[in-house]
């Protein structure tokens, strides 16, 4: 697909054409086989902790959207996968330097050509987003979508850092919980339930 065809497919919401640019979900998840995975959220509280070495020691490090990393001591530096629901400025993309980009947002018109044609690009299926939205009763955060996705994978463990469900707000913005369309209480309860029922999942609090 060339650039003009991409923009046409994006404008017309041609999901099959956009999906043709993506690796399959099965191939994406197979890449996690046997790995310890660190999923790094953007809670401000993470900046007060010292988990950077643990994060960078994981077999796979996944970050979200603008992926703020104010200090290596708190956040580490590696980014193997970057999960996006926003369009990144080029300077931010260069700073984060992800090995693979996952587009998680159902808003396909935000998807940019550079991301869609990057090595190993993954487009999260709309039915998966809608199923989790129904489960939570609100549009899921990018973090929740990643947890849902990664727990389907043959990974060894999934450890969440920087997830306090907006209790300390986000390092990547100034909005409060009332200004975003998510149900953080529902997500917190859902994650706690998954942590109880799946021994691979742990939340660093």
Description of the structure:
The chain is an alpha/beta fold and 205 residues long. It has a single domain (23-203), classed as Glycosyl transferase family 29 (sialyltransferase cstii, chain A, Alpha-Beta Complex), CATH 3.90.1480. Helices cover 37% and strands 14% of the residues. It has 10 helices and 7 strands. A 7-stranded parallel beta sheet has the order 5-4-3-2-1-6-7. Helix 6 (90-96) links the parallel strand 3 (81-84) and strand 4 (100-103). It is globular. The N and C termini lie far apart (44 Å).
- Give me the CATH fold name: sialyltransferase cstii, chain A
Q: Please give the share of residues in helix.
A: 25-40%
The CATH H-level homologous superfamily: Glycosyl transferase family 29
Radius of gyration: 16 Å
Spans of at least 5 consecutive residues whose pLDDT stays below 50 are: none
Hey, roughly how much beta strand do the residues contain? 5-15%
Order of strands in the sheet with most strands: 5-4-3-2-1-6-7
Kindly give the count of domains.
Answer: 1
Span between N and C termini?
A: 44 Å
- Tell me, briefly, the overall form: globular
Q: What is the number of helical segments per DSSP (H or I, 4+ residues)?
A: 10
| Mean of residue pLDDT values | 95
Biggest β-sheet: count, sense, barrel?
7 strands, parallel
Category by helix and strand content: alpha/beta
Order of helices and strands: HHHEHEHEHEHEHHEHE
């Amino acid at each position: 697909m060339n650039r003009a065809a991409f923009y046409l497919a994006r404008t017309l919401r041609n999901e099959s054409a956009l999906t043709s640019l993506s690796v399959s979900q099965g191939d994406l998840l197979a890449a996690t086989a046997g790995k310890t995975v660190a999923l790094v959220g953007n809670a401000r509280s993470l900046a007060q902790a010292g988990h950077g070495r643990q994060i960078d020691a994981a077999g796979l490090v996944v970050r979200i959207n603008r992926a703020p990393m104010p200090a290596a001591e708190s956040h580490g530096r590696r980014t193997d996968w970057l999960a996006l629901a926003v369009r990144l400025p080029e300077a931010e993309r260069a700073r984060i330097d992800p090995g693979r980009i996952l587009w998680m947002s159902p808003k396909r018109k935000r998807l940019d050509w550079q991301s869609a044609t990057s090595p190993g690009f993954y487009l999260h299926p709309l039915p998966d987003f809608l199923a989790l939205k129904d489960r939570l009763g609100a549009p899921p955060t990018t973090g929740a979508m990643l947890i849902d996705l990664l727990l389907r994978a043959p990974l060894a463990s999934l450890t969440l850092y920087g997830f306090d469900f907006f209790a300390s707000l986000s390092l990547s913005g100034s909005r409060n919980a009332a200004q975003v369309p998510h149900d953080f209480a529902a997500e917190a309860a859902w994650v706690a339930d998954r942590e109880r029922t799946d021994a691979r999942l742990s939340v660093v609090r």
